[in-house]
User: Which sequence fits this backbone?
């Protein structure tokens, strides 16, 4: 399928991670907010930004939050295999998803965090247990590119179950997929920090190809002739938008910050923007 | 009278063919892989159903147009091609004897049926003569009228034979027909003398009418000499009928003598109506194309 892309993606990601993120902030998602360990009294020289104001106010002496010096982040990347990722006008959605996976993986491994990778359709297609080895990338990225998504249909409920099983400890979870579906419920993962990464193509959201055309659904291999008209596209966009709005609301309500990446965009730019905001 | 029918009902096979092709040979279009094909398909269902219905309707109308709906009318002949026959009947009191008038009526009705391509007129006479029905193709009304008339409609005393002849001749005024015939049936002698015999004959000759004269009853009842003269001068025949059978034979003979050859040039009036469904189909086709095209970028 797309195996030949794996080297290209790996090199590109490495270059991005190593050249664009220079200095003392080498990771996409390094920094504060995650691995809180204890409170202690303020000493001269402490970063005043880490003062815990609530506790300071109640104790009447300054306290600071202390984070794990050697934090060991557990990061789980979930690659959602669904028939709909077999599509793309500029680049294949699957390819872009692999690139995202590789960017996150590189970043994680460079930071010496523990990375596990899961590819899931209606069952677990592939799992790489937690590792710090960069060599694992040569397994996970080709795996994500070589699996044929055409006859797969993602079962989100089973996926959530499987993630819960795999991540006993609190983790950072990246779910990379196109999130088409009406019953996506990630609420069971709320105790982790979840980042849904939605990969879409502009054309699939606005198929402005006004003609009669056969549309091949790769899942059941059925061609349906559809006469695409502007009014139909408008209706279709509306349905998609309302579904996406519902999905977005769901993510917001569980404190999950989603990002939408289109196939004609640079995943690195979008991801950096997402993590800088932390 | 008018009958609706289709000239080529086989053309309705077109509808069946259309349905078969729609089912088994869908339009071949280019295909692309599309993730949300099902959703897009389900959304387009309503409008594509309308288009399909419109398409079906167009084909149905075209099939109807192709099968050529027609309205068949009775034969209508151009007036100068067929015969024009004036029937002149004696309705005087004497015709009542031996049920003569009823018998004559039956035979004449039969005769009218036989002359289906000709124009007919009916003149009755007794005390005076009157034209019951002028020359017409409308056999039905002549028959209806003849069935209802009886002896005495024009009086019972006298026999206005010459006047009837004269008036009947005048019916042909302005006629273009080549074959003008009058069949005069009487059982009496003219005794009104409103119109002299010579005038009556002259008017018949002037219009080119061939007169067949039939005397009914026994020899003395009618003036055979006068009747023969009338027939002779107009180029017709004089018959004497003293029995029902004889009378029937006479009418049959006249019928065969003046057999119209119109039947060969049978003229059927057919009104075609295919243009209406065709026009409607074309209109709908334009609408269909417009519906399909209006959305596309040129």
Assistant:
């Amino acid at each position: 399928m797309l195996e030949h892309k794996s080297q290209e993606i790996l090199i590109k990601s490495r270059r991005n991670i190593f050249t664009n993120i220079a200095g003392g902030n080498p990771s996409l998602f390094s920094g504060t907010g995650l691995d809180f360990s204890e409170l202690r009294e303020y000493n001269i020289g402490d970063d005043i930004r880490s003062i815990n104001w609530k506790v300071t106010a109640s104790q009447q002496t300054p306290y600071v939050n202390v984070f794990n010096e050697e934090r060991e982040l557990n990061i789980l990347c979930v690659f959602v295999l669904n028939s709909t990722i077999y599509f793309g006008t500029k680049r294949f959605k699957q390819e872009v998803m692999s690139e995202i996976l590789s960017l996150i993986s590189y970043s994680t491994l460079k930071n010496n965090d523990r990375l596990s990778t899961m590819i899931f359709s209606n069952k677990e297609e592939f799992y790489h247990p937690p590792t710090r080895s960069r060599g694992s990338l040569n397994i996970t990225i080709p795996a994500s590119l070589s699996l044929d998504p055409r006859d797969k249909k993602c079962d989100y409920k089973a996926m959530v179950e499987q993630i819960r099983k795999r991540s006993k400890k609190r983790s950072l979870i990246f779910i990379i997929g196109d999130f088409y579906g009406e019953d996506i419920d990630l609420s069971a993962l709320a105790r982790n920090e979840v980042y849904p990464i939605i990969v879409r193509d502009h054309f699939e959201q606005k198929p402005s190809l006004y003609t009669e055309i056969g549309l091949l659904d790769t899942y059941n291999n059925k061609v349906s002739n559809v006469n695409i008209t502007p009014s139909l596209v408008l209706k279709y966009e509306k349905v998609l938008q309302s579904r996406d709005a519902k999905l977005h609301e769901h993510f917001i309500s569980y404190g999950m910050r989603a990002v939408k990446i289109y196939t004609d965009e640079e995943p690195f730019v979008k991801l950096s923007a997402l993590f800088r905001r932390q | 009278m008018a009958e609706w029918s289709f000239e080529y009902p086989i053309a309705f096979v077109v509808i069946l063919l259309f349905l078969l092709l729609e089912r088994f040979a869908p339009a071949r279009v280019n295909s692309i892989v599309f993730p949300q094909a099902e959703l897009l398909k389900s959304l387009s269902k309503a409008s594509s159903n309308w288009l399909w219905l419109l398409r079906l309707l167009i084909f149905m109308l075209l099939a109807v147009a192709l099968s050529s709906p027609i309205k068949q009318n009775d034969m209508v002949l151009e007036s100068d091609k067929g015969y024009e026959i004036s029937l002149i009947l004696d309705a005087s009191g004497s015709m009542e004897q031996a049920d003569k008038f009823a018998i004559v009526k039956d035979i004449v009705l039969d005769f009218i049926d036989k002359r289906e391509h000709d124009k007919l007129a009916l003149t009755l006479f007794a005390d005076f003569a009157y034209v019951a029905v002028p020359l017409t193709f409308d056999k039905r009304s002549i028959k209806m009228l003849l069935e209802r008339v009886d002896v005495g409609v024009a009086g019972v005393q006298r026999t206005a034979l010459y006047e009837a002849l004269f008036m009947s001749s005048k019916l042909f005024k302005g006629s273009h027909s080549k074959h003008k015939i009058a069949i005069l049936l009487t059982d009496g002698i003219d005794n009104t003398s409103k119109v002299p015999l010579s005038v009556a004959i002259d008017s018949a000759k002037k219009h080119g009418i061939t007169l067949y004269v039939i005397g009914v009853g026994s020899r003395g009842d009618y003036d055979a000499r006068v009747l023969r003269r009338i027939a002779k001068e107009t180029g017709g025949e004089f018959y004497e009928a003293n029995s029902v059978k004889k009378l029937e034979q006479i009418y049959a003979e006249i019928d065969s003598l003046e057999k119209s050859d119109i039947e060969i040039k049978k003229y059927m009036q057919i009104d075609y109506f295919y243009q209406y469904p065709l026009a409607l189909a074309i209109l709908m086709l334009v609408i269909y194309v417009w519906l399909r095209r209006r959305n596309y970028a040129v």
Observations:
- The two ends of chain B are 55 Å apart (CA to CA).
- Chain B touches chain A at residues 26-27, 29-41, 43-44, 47-48, 51, 292, 295-297 (CB under 8 Å).
